[in-house]
Amino acid sequence: MRTGYREMLRDRCPSTVDLALKWCKAKTSWVNLVYKHFIKHYTDKQNRYEATRIVLGLNKSVHGGFDFHYTIDWDDLTAEEKDVWQGIESWVNWFTENYLYIENGYIVYRNNGKTKEEIENLLIQTHLKGMDEDNAKKLINYLITHIKNKLYV
């Protein structure tokens, strides 16, 4: 098992952020970007460790918790990279704001005897109104798969 700073970023990333980054297929890119901008330049092991904890929001005295926006060095990005990371950030914010409601809705609907299709449709109608049907179904299936894995572990 590898125990480096990249692995610490990968493993200790908040779960909703982790889900969003995986949805965007950007988890590895985020880990590499954060490592490059905030951790790599330290040579002292303790400084690297503290920098990693700060980025992850585990050092409450610095930021008061995890904030995805502060994990990106926006000034060091090209205009194109900024556009990409702003899109990813909007997904991170969406997951952070909506995931728990979707998880709760899934549990309530499942416990009330709704079928898989009924649950999907109810969650889409409630939480993904403005999204086109194909993407809404892909997203809700992605989230349901994660919820099921989380509940039955």
Explain the overall architecture.
The protein has 153 residues and is mainly alpha-helical. The protein has one domain. It contains 8 helices and no strands. The protein is elongated.
Describe the structure concisely.
By secondary structure, the chain is mainly α. It contains eight helices and no strands.
Annotation, overall tally of beta strands: 0
Separate helix tally = 8
* Class per helix and strand makeup: mainly alpha
* Low-pLDDT ranges: none
Q: Looking at the chains present, what oligomeric state does this protein adopt?
A: single chain
Could you describe the largest sheet, including whether it forms a barrel?
Answer: none
Overall shape? elongated
% residues in beta strands: under 5%
* SSE string, helices as H and strands as E: HHHHHHHH
Mean pLDDT: 91
Cα end-to-end separation: 21 Å
Q: Tell me the count of domains.
A: 1
Helix residue percentage: over 70%
Spatial extent as radius of gyration: 18 Å
Throw out a few tags for this protein:
153 residues; 8 helices
Question: How does the SSE layout of this entry go?
Answer:
Elements lengths: L4 H8 L2 H9 L3 H13 L5 H11 L4 H4 L15 H33 L4 H12 L5 H19 L2
Helix pairs in contact: 1-3, 2-6, 3-4, 6-7, 7-8
